[in-house]
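Record 1 of the preview.
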Amino acid sequence: MFQVSAKIIYNNKIKKNYFEIALTAQQIAKSALPGQFVNIKVSDGSEPLLRRPLSIHRIGRKVARSQSHTSKEKEFIVMLYEVVGKGTEILSTRKAGEYLDVIGPLGNGFDYEGRPPQSAGGRPPEQCGGRRMKDDGRIVLVAGGMGTAPLVFLAERLRERGTKDERRRTKVLIGAKTKDSILCEKEFRDLGCEVRVATDDGSRGFKGYVSNLLKKELSTIDYRILTIYACGPIPMLKEISRISLEHTIPAQLSLESHMACGIGACMGCVIKTRDVERETKDVFEYKRVCKEGPVFEAGEIIW
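->
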């Protein structure tokens, strides 16, 4: 974790109420993992008091030339945010060249390499149809609303370790209220992902919730799903947790939560969880979304 004074490279409006901001925070960029976030002080004064947590959307790279005329690639962090209150409204007014106080990377992100994930029911993958993290199946990303932000970063890393084989491409399901609020479709397609869209009002793609689109996809696919990764509103994640359990597919869920400190000190963002290794469901413990999360295995969360 680093605390840095980060220079704003750009802070652009991408569509109504949605902005993309890029910051020169090379230490954070080098150590960040998909699913982690930063906590930003949006103003130079005491108002608003609390920082604003923003998921890391992707890592950008630019070539910088030194006085000796040598070139060096520098990394920066990019975040998406929606203007929904005073803090994000202030952030939307900040200009390129200004500086923001930023802490990050924070939290635990997605596990997408190395360790085989637990299933939604807490059982090991070999007891759930053999779905281990091998390169013999596909991965599904489910994004609801602003939940698209960290999943682009994840898709980038999956592409780096993946293959161009059509059978192994990452599939992305994007959910939005209307066609005008669909986010990141082009970014996912540019990464070689197969993308399907769901809108609540049916103005684009599948009509209904993205969780219903997931159910439809799972009922018709003829290939193995290794893992579901999801981020979005709590009701959506709760339904995806249920679906993953029903289909015995491991799922990792990135929770959205109101945070105060963002570093695990205030205990203001706790959720109830169970130990997936234990048989009993009566014993639970509290975990912090900002510290132990924001990513949890579906079987951990007590809804």
